[in-house]
Write a structure and sequence with these properties.
The protein is rod-shaped. The mean pLDDT is 75. The chain is built from 5 helices and no strands. It starts with 9 loop residues before the first helix and ends in a 6-residue tail after the last helix. Helix 3 (73-82) packs antiparallel against helix 4. The chain is 45% helix and 0% strand. With 117 residues, the protein is mainly alpha-helical. It has helices at 10-25, 51-62, 73-82, 87-94, 105-111.
Length: 117
């Protein structure tokens, strides 16, 4: 008779198997019912203040690779359009000042009025 493990008691083996069943089968809900063990998704997490800014920065950076720079406002907008940037990102980039050459996406971010980092 194979119990599956010789390191724990059969009761522990059964408990571990029950707890991991949803992960093995890909069930849409966790088999664990204890509230402290439920995994919280990012969309359910409380806003820490910087989450929206991080998302926004990620969106801007997603359409501007390092080869874009150095570039002025017009070149940055062109590159973002070519990369398929969303209207939201294009509207943000449209707010960049003219006559400034940006050396990186971090400089773009600073001019958009968001803290770096």
């Amino acid at each position: 008779m194979d119990r599956g493990s010789d390191k724990q008691a059969p009761r522990m083996d059964d408990e571990l198997k029950r707890e991991s069943e949803s992960f093995e089968r890909g069930a849409p809900v966790e088999s664990r019912v204890e509230e402290h063990r439920i995994v919280e998704s990012a969309s359910e997490a409380p806003d820490e203040g910087g989450l929206d800014e991080a998302r926004s920065r990620g969106e801007v950076g997603r359409f501007l690779d390092p080869s874009t720079f150095p570039a002025d406002r017009a070149a940055i907008l062109d590159r973002a359009r070519q990369a398929g940037a969303t209207d939201t990102v294009l509207n943000q980039l449209d707010g960049l000042p003219e006559g400034v050459t940006f050396g990186s996406v971090d400089e773009v971010w600073e001019h958009l009025g968001r803290p770096e980092g």
